[in-house]
Design goal:
Blueprint: E1 3-8, H1 15-27, E2 30-36, H2 47-57, E3 64-69, H3 73-79, E4 84-89, H4 92-108, E5 113-118, H5 128-136, H6 147-162
Parallel strand pairs: 1-2, 1-4, 2-3, 4-5
Pfam families: CTP_transf_like
Catalytic activity: (R)-4'-phosphopantetheine + ATP + H(+) = 3'-dephospho-CoA + diphosphate
Family: Belongs to the bacterial CoaD family.
Length: about 160
């Protein structure tokens, strides 16, 4: 059985993430989407909220499982028997960053491959950071996230403004 992981902070999940997950689900027998904490980022949504968003977004993908952890990506892949780490690439900047991470991962685990999937053109400029910024400025994000995430983003902004 060919198993891959798709790691990220998914804060929040975007349609771009879902596109990569869906495409990866066609390439592997099982894809584990794992929410890993990024020590350099302060999350807008709790782990529980991100897990809920991810489970709802991936509910129709039978071979996709959702998980979370606090370990290094390559350690998670090894622990769960994954032969590949899926990463999405939107730009040259993403490619250079991912190439460096893939090199480190290969050094730590030669038997785990990194597979780069290029973002679909319609989503290649979207990031969770941009989504959060658009919401702060009252812009419509419905083309880039599902309705549950859109509502949660708008509510989070209202909550922050009320403080």
């Amino acid at each position: 059985m060919k198993k891959a992981i798709f790691p990220g902070s998914f804060d929040p999940i975007t349609n771009g993430h879902l596109d990569i997950i869906t495409r990866a689900s066609h390439l592997f027998d099982e894809v584990i989407v794992v929410i890993l904490e990024n020590s350099e980022k302060r999350s807008a949504f709790t782990l529980e909220e991100r897990l809920q968003f991810m489970k709802a977004a991936c509910a129709k993908l039978a071979n996709v499982r959702i998980d979370h952890d606090t370990c290094l990506t390559v350690e998670y892949a090894r622990k769960h028997g994954a032969s590949a780490i899926i990463r999405g690439v939107r730009s040259v900047k993403d490619y250079e960053y991912e190439r460096d991470i893939a090199s480190i991962n290969q050094h730590m685990a030669e038997d785990i491959e990194t597979i780069l999937l290029f973002a679909s053109p319609s989503q290649s400029f979207v990031s969770s950071t941009i989504i959060r910024e658009m919401v702060r400025y009252g812009q419509d994000i419905s083309a880039f996230v599902n309705d549950e995430v859109r509502k949660a983003c708008v509510q989070r902004l209202k909550d922050e403004e009320g403080k």
